[in-house]
C-alpha cells in the first residue's frame, strides 16, 4: 500500500470516528390523506423536544433521527412501512403510529423483531388489554373518552343522543365506551349509525340523525370524514350538539370545519395546551415560541408527551441503544413525571396516562 492509500485510509478512519453517532427511530403514519392535519401536528410537537435534545448533543452523545414514512392512513401501507423500517432501515424502535387497525397491523412485525412501539396515536383498548408486549401507550383510551362524552351530555340534560361510528376496529372500540356511558346512566342512544371509513354515506347518515330527533351526536371517526359529516348535518338544518374524540383534537380539524366548528365538543387526553401550571405544557410552549410558534394544539402536546417517553427510554437504555435495551428501559419506567403527568409501565401494564377532559371549539380555538 503506497503512502497516498495509507493517508486516505487514515482520513476515512478519522472521519468515521469524528462523525456524530445517531439513533434511528422509525415512524409510519398518515402524513397525507384524511388525518394528515392532526398527524403532522403530533409530529411537530414531538420534533420540538427531539430538536431541543439534539441541539444539546443528543442522548449519551448520540443524536436522534426519526425516519418517517407516509402510509396515507392506509392499513396495508402502514404494515409494509413497518417492515421496511425494521428489516431494512434497522431502527431501534417504532414511534407514534396513527390509527387503530394500522397499529394492529404493525404488531406482528413488532413481535417478529422484538422491538417497541412507543406512543401510538390511538386510544384503542385492544392495544391496552390484553397487554401487548411491544406496545407502550402514552395517551388514554378511546373507551374512557367516549364514556366521559356520553356522561357529560346526559348530565347536562340532553337525553336524545345519536351515535355515528366508523365501521372499523377504532369505531367498534369507541362505541363500546359510549355504550358503557349509556349503561351507567340506564339510558340508550336514540339511533346508532354505522359509517364507512373511506366513503361515509352522508345522505343516509344525516337523515337517520334527523329522523331520530337527536339533540346531540357523538361522531366517532377521523379527520375529513367527520368534518364533512358535521358540515352535512348543519346543511340539513340540524342544530344538534356534536361531540367527537381526541383523534380530531387539532388546529387543522378546526380550520377544515370552518364556520361549522363553533360549539363542537372535542374530548381531550392531555391538559389544556395553554395551562402553564403543568411543567410539561410550559416547557413545550417555551420550545414552540423559540421557533416562532405562538401556541400549541392538543395534537402537538400529544406528540410532545410521547417524545418525552421516547427520550427517557433512550436515556435509560444507555449509549448505543439496542432494541432489547430500549424494551428493558421502558419496562423499568415507574412513576416517570412528564411534567405534571405521571406514567408507569410494567410487564403487566403498558397503559398510558388516564386523563380525559372536554373542550369546546369557540372562536377557532379549543376552550374548556
Overall description:
The chain has 368 residues and is an alpha/beta fold. It contains twelve helices and 14 strands. The protein has a seven-stranded mixed β-sheet with strand order 7-6-8-9-10-13-14, with helices on both faces. A five-stranded parallel β-sheet has the order 2-1-3-4-5, with helices on both faces. α5 (142-155) packs parallel to α6 (169-184). The radius of gyration is 22 Å and the shape is globular. The model is unreliable at 14-19 (pLDDT under 50).
Short description:
With 368 residues, the protein is α/β, with parallel strands linked by helices.
From the structure above, extract its key features:
single chain, 368 residues, alpha/beta, 7-stranded mixed sheet, 5-stranded parallel sheet, 12 helices, 14 strands, 45% helix, globular
- Report the major sheet: 7 strands, mixed
Helicity range of the residues? 40-55%
- Overall residue-averaged pLDDT value: 91
In quaternary terms, these chains amount to single chain
What's the overall geometry?
A: globular
Order of helices and strands: HEHEHEHEEHEHEHEHEHEHHHEEEE
Query: What portion of residues belong to β-strands?
Result: 15-25%
Number of helices: 12
Rg over C-alpha atoms, rounded to the nearest angstrom: 22 Å
**Strand-pairing-aware structural class:** alpha/beta
> Which runs of at least 5 residues are low in confidence (pLDDT < 50)?
14-19
Order of strands, widest sheet: 7-6-8-9-10-13-14
Number of strands: 14
N→C terminal distance:
73 Å
